[in-house]
Write a structure and sequence with these properties.
With 338 residues, the protein is an all-alpha fold. It contains 8 helices and no strands. The C terminus is likely disordered.
């Protein structure tokens, strides 16, 4: 009896840690997007001339945020909150990994693979933020953004698998699983294009909806490990390349949106448990498209573009939920594995 009570208490703590970590990761992703976009120049006073100006003298390692030096940094309050949330999250992730390893023999266990992978990403992001904080290296921006999204998605997947262990699934639309996988891949690719767009300071490169003049291909557009060049005023030099990257991001958005619209309506037509998630998907997609389209004529307001990043993260969670609903855990004597 005591053993069952102890196991139940351990399970409750594990579930709570995963849920809290999921919330903290979402907060961290949004705060990180706000800081990155503001440092790039969105919302600056002399728009658009002030966009892409990098002051190398104020680049600090991540740990400096919590010192007196950090008080002089741009958006110091947001940076401090981001660092504190990330630190608490790191502690929770370590606890989740340890508990997952200790729970390997517990019935209804989801396995330790995903928690260990989440821990590895957390360590990588911590190192990235501490050792290479410069916005002039595209690989850093890409690593931070995509790593945060991957961590968020894995925590959501883990929380979903925990919740489903003792619940009966009544899904009959398993033929949709390949289509959902394609949609998830397209969405991840589009998020990657958004990260690429941000990493090369290409946000305002195409100020009109219908055209993107000056686009020209260059191998520098895909060389993410070479630092971006700046002129004598500290402004990033990326003429031509930025327009191309931005145009590809827009084309990717069109392809992804069309596919997800088709997928959402196809799922709704099946009229089973997936329908609610499909309606959520279509609602979020409509909001995301509205934010993307409105932000261009409004000259990329900082809060609107930050919201665009946040909705992208929630869209990712929605697609993972669809995949999860069509991936029931194995039943039987053996513990279920992620």
């Amino acid at each position: 009896m005591q053993s069952q009570t102890k196991t139940k208490s351990s399970n409750s703590l594990f579930i709570s840690l995963v849920s809290l970590s999921l919330l903290l990761t979402l907060i961290t992703v949004v705060l990180s997007a706000y800081i990155r976009l503001s440092v790039n120049g969105l919302g600056c006073d002399n728009w658009p001339d002030c966009y892409g100006k990098v002051n190398l003298s104020v680049q600090h390692q991540g740990i400096d945020v919590l010192t007196n030096t950090g008080k002089t940094m741009q958006h110091s309050g947001i940076r401090t909150l981001h660092r504190l949330v990330a630190s608490v999250l790191g502690i929770f992730v370590v606890m989740i990994a340890i508990m997952a390893l200790r729970r390997r023999g517990v019935p209804d266990n989801t396995g330790a693979t995903v928690p260990i992978l989440i821990l590895a990403i957390t360590i990588f992001l911590s190192w990235l933020g501490y050792a290479t904080p410069t916005p002039l290296l595209p690989a850093v921006t890409l690593g931070n953004l995509l790593g945060g999204m991957a961590m968020l998605g894995l925590l959501w997947w883990l929380s979903q698998r925990i919740a489903v262990q003792n619940s009966a699934q009544q899904i009959h639309s398993y033929h949709l699983k390949p289509s959902i996988i394609v949609g998830l891949v397209l969405l991840c690719g589009q998020i990657g294009l958004g990260a690429w767009n941000s990493a090369f300071f290409a946000g305002p490169a195409c100020p009109e909806l219908g055209s993107c003049s000056g686009a020209e291909w260059s191998t520098s557009a895909i060389n993410i490990f070479t630092a971006l060049s700046i002129d004598n005023q500290g402004k990033v030099i990326n003429a031509g390349t930025a327009e191309t990257i931005h145009l590809i991001h827009r084309l990717g958005a069109i392809v992804t949106a069309i596919y997800l619209l088709w997928l959402g309506f196809k799922i709704i037509a099946c009229k089973d448990k997936l329908r609610t998630t499909a309606i959520t998907l279509l609602s979020l997609l409509g909001l995301q498209l509205s934010l993307g389209l409105l932000s261009i004529p409004m000259q990329l307001p900082l809060l609107m573009v930050t919201a665009h990043n946040a909705i992208a993260a929630i869209l990712l969670l929605t697609m993972i939920n669809l995949y999860h609903l069509l991936s029931p855990p194995s039943r039987g004597a053996a513990p279920s594995r992620v």
